[in-house]
Amino acid sequence: MKRAELVPLGLLAAAMIAGGMLSPHFWDLRYLLDSTSLHVETGLLVIGMTFVIALGQIDLSAASNLALVSCATAKLLQMGVHPAVGICIGIGLGTMLGIVNGLLVAYANLPSFLVTLGTLALYRGIAQALMGAASVKFPESLCGIDRWYLPGGIVPVPFAVFVVLAAAFGVALAKTTFGRRVIAIGANSTASEYSAIKVNRIVLSVFALSGLMAGIAGVMMDSRLGVARYDHARGLELEVITATVLGGTSIYGGKATMTGSFLALLLMAAVHVSLGLANVKTEIQLTIIGAVLVLTLAIGGVFSGAKAGGLAGRAE
User: Which value, to the nearest 10 degrees, does the dihedral of the CA atoms of residues 305, 309, 315, 316 take?
Assistant: First the structure.
């Protein structure tokens, strides 16, 4: 249990076994990949959230950012904007909304919890003002991304995109100067400043990254669902933060693993699929996911306490 990734890996194995017991179709590779691709938008937000929480911050507005990007992109395409241009503007909008959060946190010295709690309501409110109660159809030629496959017809395009981005940003977090600085700031921002790290610049960059992931996820959700609505991804913040912490990223900052976040996302997808096969209601699914998070944190706390006790005993 020395590595944080082992907890979600063990729970993932248990969830896979339980799913196989519920239905023999659970183990079909294409069915598993198709089911997981439905959670790719959550996974993209988890990538950004891993950096944010590693920094010792929080972004509660990621799902609202996704919804606003979804609505704005669909509106632009409805107005006749070229699809490539509209999609780029949508992703750029998501990045800019992340930068707004970053500016307020880094340069106005406001707590990220309060800033993103405010922009959670603000971004969702703008989306609602833009759309009202109506929904806007996405161009038919761009719909159904979850039914697009890589050559071979097994791996869905959304899942492939998620894997590539998770791998790339995982390397960035673990192996680059930028990633090491994010971890250092999360561990001790004051010491990082004295070490000549541009703390404000890193904070701004990380929130911009969170916004970028929300932008990509917003466009992807438009394509998957075929329509844009202001209430897209409502409440998704819970699952995103759950998966990030479940994967071993410390809620206090200074410790993060993209591999753990990736495994936690797979775990949550497996739990959803298993519970869906068992005809468990959505409300109860949320309860079970919350229980899984508490269980994981408890396991981590027990082993951290045991490790600390062992170190104290050796010191004596």
Answer: 150
Domain count, the chain: 1
Mean pLDDT estimate for the chain: 88
Q: Estimate the crossing angle of helix 258-277 against helix 29-37, to 10 degrees.
A: 110
83-131 per-position pLDDT tens digit: 999 999 999 999 999 999 999 999 999 999 999 999 999 999 999 999 9
Model confidence at 1: pLDDT above 60: no
Query: Hey, which bits of the chain come out as E strands?
Result: 136-137, 227-228
Give residues with Cβ within 8 angstroms of 133, minimum separation 6.
Answer: none
pTM: 0.90
Is the pLDDT confidence value at 54 over 70?
Answer: yes
Task: List the CATH number of the domain containing 251.
Answer: 1.10.3470
CA dist list (Å): 39 to 22, 184, 219, 233: 21, 31, 14, 11
Report the distance separating Cα 276 and Cα 38, nearest Å: 13
- The answer to whether the Cα torsion of 68, 74, 80, 81 is positive or negative is positive
Domain around 155: 6-308
pLDDT band at 296 (very low <50, low <70, confident <90, very high): low
Tell me: the pLDDT tens digits for 222-259? 999 999 999 999 988 888 988 898 888 988 899 999 99
Cβ atoms within 10 Å, residue 151: 6
Q: How many degrees, rounded to 5, is the angle at CA 45 between CA 39 and CA 46?
A: 85
Q: Kindly state whether residue 316 falls inside one of the protein's structural domains.
A: no
